UniProtKB/TrEMBL annotation:
Domain of life, source organism: Eukaryota
GO CC terms of this entry: eukaryotic translation initiation factor 4F complex
Keyword GTP-binding: no
Gene3D superfamilies, per database record: RNA Cap, Translation Initiation Factor Eif4e
UniProt protein name: Eukaryotic translation initiation factor 4E-1
Length: 215
């Protein structure tokens, strides 16, 4: 079981391996041009859904890697210059994943994992933008106690509804997975039941129906 990270605990200095000091905008108060580093680099992917897919390979061919960023400023630069989630065409998805994790079940980081998921009806179109933004901020801000469990998130536009999913590295223990689900709801301000689905069920590779939780 992964151990929870204390909120606000900052691994950057350890990772740097020396006594490096934090760099902030105040480091250069004249030029005021220092960017705020994220804990990790994140990659935004897009797929348009498009034509009916017949194989894992053709599904993957639809995936486009848009950009990787590792600062707060670059995140907002991307966010402010791409289509909002509710402007995507039906069938399309944005995927935001830690750099190095492909947004697919087959990636080793996802292969034994699953997703916390909820749907909104189409008439709540604008709400999905807020939920997607709060989800991305929770991810890049590494706000989850079981941070190592978080692989990424996906927003999906479909006919009549939209869907948001938080992908985790594993499906348990139950206590940990449910904790992540409850924290996800709190961080995005969601007041409805959400469901956990193991990827093995979605991919039908050994679907077993267990590890299905609700919070
Ligand atoms: P989906 O978009 O996650 O489900 O997957 P949805 O929205 O219920 O279905 P849709 O038809 O309305 O889009 C749709 C299909 O995309 C799956 O049945 C797979 O064929 C393919 N697919 C999706 N994902 C996330 C993966 C993946 O990670 N790997 C592979 N190989 N195929 C995937």
């Amino acid at each position: 079981m992964a151990s929870p990270r204390e909120h606000g605990q900052q691994p950057v200095e350890e990772a740097a391996g020396d006594q490096q000091e934090y760099t902030t905008v105040l480091t250069d108060p004249v030029n005021f041009n220092v960017k705020h580093p994220l804990f990790s680099s994140w990659t935004l992917w897009y797929d348009h859904g498009g034509k009916r897919l017949t194989s894992a390979q053709s599904w993957e061919q639809n995936l486009k890697e848009l950009i990787t960023f590792d600062t707060v400023e670059d995140f907002w630069g991307v966010y402010n210059n791409i289509a909002k989630a509710n402007e995507l065409q039906s069938g399309a998805n944005y995927h935001l994943f830690k750099k190095g994790i492909r947004p697919m079940w087959e990636d080793t980081a996802n292969a034994r994992g699953g997703k916390w998921v909820f749907q909104l009806q189409k008439q709540r179109g604008a709400d999905i933008n807020d939920y997607w933004l709060y989800t991305m901020l929770a991810c890049i801000g590494e706000s989850f106690e079981y941070e190592d469990e978080i692989c990424g998130a996906v927003v999906s536009l479909r006919k009549g509804f939209s869907r948001l999913a938080l992908w985790t590295r594993s499906c348990g223990p139950r206590e940990m997975t449910e904790h992540i689900g409850r924290q996800f709801k709190g961080l995005v301000g969601l007041n409805m039941q959400i469901e956990f689905q193991p990827h093995s069920d979605a991919s039908k590779s050994g679907a077993h129906g267990k590890d299905k939780y609700v919070v």
